[in-house]
Amino acid sequence: MSAIDLSVPQFRPVIETEQDRRKYQRVDLELGGCFLDDASEDHQLITENLSCSGAYLRAATVPEAGANVICYFDDLGRVAGTVVRTSKDGFAVEFNVVPHKRKKLADRLSWLINKDLIEVPEQRAAARFPTGGPAFIGRKDGLQIPCTVVDISLTGASFETNGQFQPPPIGEVVTAGNLRGRVVRSGENEFAVNFLRPDEDDV
What we know:
The chain has 203 residues and is mainly beta. Helix content is 10%, strand content 41%. The chain is built from 1 helix and 14 strands. The chain is globular and about 45 Å long.
């Protein structure tokens, strides 16, 4: 079985309908995650299939067609998109990404679906290291949350609160020292952030 390159457009027979024709190959792949709706409320999701241009997502809460959403996929990261089709238990989203971001998505998806075939270790994800050290996380309202650093890598970190403060919600941009990060996971006493580049905005 050969590896699949998702960055190459896949041309299909003309007998297919326009709705089913996609510029990029879509593959069946289940990833957990969540999405933020227009009210900035987060909802759980599971991907049914994905390409670097869009995805079909199963979710208990289904936004309306035309709605803008921000998706956070496990092992894939943050992607903004527009809902293009809905069903009773899910919806299709078209990603709103610039070309270089689309290429990164294609590379990442290619690795995820081919990693068992090519049997190579992941090289794009930075290794995480446990620390247990203290940290103060700055929220957008100026509140400083005392935390313990659970683990950290070049691309992100996870933190544990002491129970006196609620973890920031998914999607909020926080600061950790001189670093900025976007919250991608938030639980009862733990949360995780992906670090932002210096030139990356807070939207």
